[in-house]
Amino acid sequence: MKGEVAKVLRPRQSARSEERPGRVARVRVWRGFLYNQDMPEIVKKVSEKMERYTPAEIEPKWQSRWDADASLYAAEGHDSGKPKYYCIEMLPYPSGQLHMGHVRNYAIGDALARHMWMRGYNVLHPMGWDAFGLPAENAALKNGVPPREWTLSNIAAMKKQMRRMGLSYDWSTEVTTCLPEYYRWNQWFFLKMFEKGLAFRKKSKVNWCPECQTVLANEQVVGGRCWRHEDTVVELRDLTQWFFRITKYADELLDGLDKLEGWPEKVRTMQRNWIGRSEGALIDFAVDQGVGKGDEGAEGACKITVFTTRVDTIFGATSVQLAPEHPVAKAFAAEDDTLREKIEGLLAEQQKARESDALGAIEKHGVETGQFAVNPFNGEKVPIWVANYILADYGTGAIMSVPAHDERDFEFAQKYGLSLRRVVAPAASGAEEPVLPYVAEEDAVVIDSGEWSGLGCGAAQEKMAAFAKARGFGTPTVTYRLKDWGVSRQRYWGTPIPMVYCDKCSPDEPMPVAESELPILLPEQIDITQTNGSPLGRVAEFVNTTCPKCGGKARRETDTMDTFVDSSWYFYRYTDARNAAAPFDSDKANYWFPIDQYIGGVEHAILHLIYSRFWTKVMRDLGMIKNDEPAERLFTQGMVIKDGAKMSKSKGNVVSPDDMIARYGADATRMYALFAAPPDRDLDWQEEGVAGISRFLSRVYRLVTKFSAAAESAGSGAAVTPAGQALLRKLHQTIAKITQDFDGRWHFNTSISSIMILVNEIAANEAAIDAGEISQAVVAEVFRGLILLLAPFAPFFAAEMWEQVGGEGVVFRTAWPVADADLAREDEIEIPVQVNGKLVNVLKVPAGSDEATVKAAALADEKVKSRIEGKTVVKVIVVPGKLVNLVVKCEPLL
Q1: Coil, helix or strand for 40?
Q2: Is the peptide bond before 519 cis (omega within 30 degrees of 0)?
Q3: Where do runs of H (alpha helix) occur along 487-558?
Q4: Rounded to 5 degrees, what are φ and ψ at 387?
Q5: Which of 37, 144, 215, 400 has its CA 20 to 30 A from that of 558?
């Protein structure tokens, strides 16, 4: 009735609201009224307040309640009777501030953990901090703040942000890797590996970052540059360093990839390529004129050892080529100043190629040494060259060049006029002579190769390698691209290595400290401004100690461990984070492992993930665990892109979640991160998208608030009207869709889209609900189901709405709704009909209709008939359940 307030017949104030503190009873007074522009202003204001979604009030309220319940996110014991689910995101480096890239990662894991709680699982969902490493030390140098102080303050700030985001972490299991209670176990593992021969010290050519002033592992060199400093070229230096013998597990690391079916194939491929297993033979070429020291350091016994996967082509070798830093090349250069200058020029070219990340495409240059090597199979002398594309740290630093059967060797031979000799041919008789370079097919045969001529290439490789071994100039072997893990770092902020040196007992060999001495504490007050050598070496009270053998004076190791040591086993510590007697209890670890779902960026495919797999196998062999691999399933989320680049602090394009939360709330922020793109794809950041999610939540808030009295009802008995049946069908279809998304590829973007479609359906039936055409029982089921579906994605919002509708208990500990298959089944489906690819109409046909029925319905449709009148139907294409396309052509004019 226009111009006055009209009261509906049945006021909706609930007596139950009077009994519950905190329920908005005064709002219920007005919920039963209709009003228009002429109603009293006070009614308008109260109604507007009732329908306004205010995350700034709702979210802190619920976070405060959750913080008060320490058991809310805690995992249960082994005897809970529930199936276990271990879900973690890779622990962050405490840089001081989260950005939306972090939020996306954590929102994925959080939604999954909450969903699995609702599915009845015993969930472990922990968080910790990868707190050692160069960034903290570099920040301390820049800001004048000690690394420990800087790191712990950043942890406090980021933890506060995570709480404000409402992330469901069990903080009782929190791990901070820079604290002694954690890094003492790094030292304990080091001692165990030393006992097993897995930790060792040797002099070798290592990667040195001039900016970090420390050694880098091979995996930390990207395109010839430091992984942390994209503009800093890595140098090669000869240093004595500590290594972990990861190569002992090379075959197992490689073979295990076939069992990791829950890992992305791209990650497994990257690891296969990095391990780089090659079967072949090591062959010794004697230098015709012995010069200086050979590969093994024996005077006058100069030889060049090459590794080849194609020993069957050795009769086609027309030169031997060395890396500029190969010992034999250095020996030649030492006796010839002109040659030395040329070799130094090749080395400079190689270094320049490293700087531009162009080693793979380097223009090949070489220098002839004037010396010859002897092919051990035929006694032929072949010239020795030094080439800029041969690397000292790859293989043996020397190759035999077979230009007729290798593209790289062919290019070099063409440039310098070296001869080509074909020694492999197609097996088929009468086949055309192949164009060189000819890379043999599987059935190719060896020719012009002495007694091995006529053999298939595979058989020739086996027999020729055995011949070399029998004659003492070679051996069948397997090589790997994977090198032992260099773990020494000449920096301060890391785990001290628990080894000592005693000039009396062992002047050259280090000795382990006693386990009872652990942890070897990292000094807290130390000058790290000098960068020449390890900072710990300048701290007398740290360096000076007593010998574990004689009790006399000794000195500690001053290198610290690579920070990837910390992250190689942290997820095991989560299972028993407060254990002071061991890294963890084996029974607890064996209950939780392997990890059911591990979530993190693909950039860790080599560095972190291969190290953690190695560490798991070491712990298994120490008898600490039973599993062979750390994680059963791995998910690598896409990046968040802003201004055309990955969002990162170093690029200056970060968006702070604090800003988004202040404007739109935590739930809208996290929902946008899940909605804007499939989680495995890159997300192009748009703030308007967060605003859109906020408007959507406001719409849901209005609907739930308006109908909360009806939604509180659990009554039944009223007949389900067609409108109610349609609404229930949409609910159960949405339940089925989202359940499938969680069980499958995590299409959370389409999950949230499905919820939006459900809300649209509810809004379209708003008048029918007002008029009582849809029963309260249906309204209760639909709204409660909607809230439960929202709970993993928007936990604060869902908790508030759950309270509004009188839900009992914690919303994300309430059972996940189960789809009724009969209700979810469509009676009819919509089929677009096209004519020559252009949409003409959308037909409704019975669900499950066969192709003939769909085709007949399309041809009988009036719009379709008018479009094809006077034309010939050439073909009718029916894509079951998807579309119909009629291909037609006009009749020719008479």
Answers
A1: coil
A2: yes
A3: 540-543
A4: -125, 145
A5: 144
Q: Under a CB-based contact definition with an 8 Å cutoff, are residues 775 and 717 in contact?
A: no
| pLDDT for the residue numbered 412 | 95
Entry pTM? 0.82
Task: Retrieve residue 705's tokens.
Answer: 């608030």
Q: Is 777 left (phi over 0), alpha (psi -120 to 50) or beta?
A: alpha
Look at the block and give the residue holding tokens 């997300």.
Answer: 683
Cβ neighbourhood burial of 363 (10 Å; 0-12, 13-18, 19+)? exposed
CA-to-CA distance for 180 and 487, rounded, in angstroms?
A: 19
Report how far residue 847's alpha carbon sits from residue 266's, in angstroms, rounded to the nearest whole number: 39
Q: Is the pLDDT of residue 741 over 90?
A: yes
Across the strands, what pairs with 334?
A: none
Q: How many residues does the chain have?
A: 894
Output b/e per residue, 30-42; b: 16+ Cβ within 10 A.
bbebeeeeebeee
What is the distance between the alpha carbons of residues 279 and 880, in angstroms, rounded to a whole number? 50
DSSP state of 496: B
Determine the Cα–Cα distance for residues 319 and 761; give it in Å rounded to an integer.
77
Output phi, psi for 762, to 5 deg: -65, -45
Q: What are phi and psi of 533, to 5 degrees?
A: 90, 175
831's CB contacts (< 8 A; 6+ apart) are 842, 843, 844, 845, 854, 857, 858, 881, 882, 883, 884
Q: Which amino acid is at 523?
A: P
Contact yes or no for 494/561 (Cβ under 8 A)? yes
pLDDT, tens digit, 9 for 90 and up, residues 453-504: 999 999 999 999 999 999 999 999 999 999 999 999 888 999 999 999 998 8
Give the torsion through C-alpha atoms of 615, 616, 617, 618, to 10 deg: 50
Distance CA 562, CA 664 (A): 41
Q: Within its chain, how far is the Cα of 95 from the centroid?
A: 19
Task: Please give the structure tokens belonging to residue 71.
Answer: 């058991």
Phi/psi class of residue 770: alpha, beta or left (left: φ > 0; alpha: ψ in -120 to 50)? alpha
- Mean pLDDT, range 571-595, rounded to an integer: 98
DSSP state of 631: B
C-alpha gyration radius of the chain: 35
Query: Which tokens sit at 268?
Result: 């497994």
What pLDDT shows up at residue 297? 41
Burial 63-97 (b: 16+ CB within 10 A, else e): beebeeeeeebebeeeeeeeebbbbbbbbbbbbbe
User: 10 Å Cβ neighbour count for 553?
Assistant: 12
Locus of tokens 């009582």: 772
Please list, in sequence order, all residues whose beta carbon lies within 8 angstroms of the beta carbon of residue 291, skipping any fewer than 6 positions away. Answer: 302, 328, 331, 332, 335, 371
Which one-letter DSSP state was computed for residue 262?
A: B
Residues 6+ apart with CB under 8 A from 877: 884, 885, 886, 887
In which band, very low, low, confident or very high, does the pLDDT at 51 lie, cut at 50, 70 and 90? low
Least Cα distance to 640 among 594, 674, 607, 592 occurs for: 674
Residue with tokens 């000094």: 523
Measure the CA–CA gap between 574 and 181, rounded to whole angstroms. Answer: 13
**What is the C-alpha separation between 583 and 574, in angstroms, rounded?**
10
Asked whether 640 and 685 are in contact (CB, 8 A), the reply is: yes
CA distance 107 to 89: 10
Give the helix, strand, coil percentages of the chain, each rounded to 5.
45, 20, 35
Both structure tokens of 332: 């030649």
Tokens of 157: 């700030």
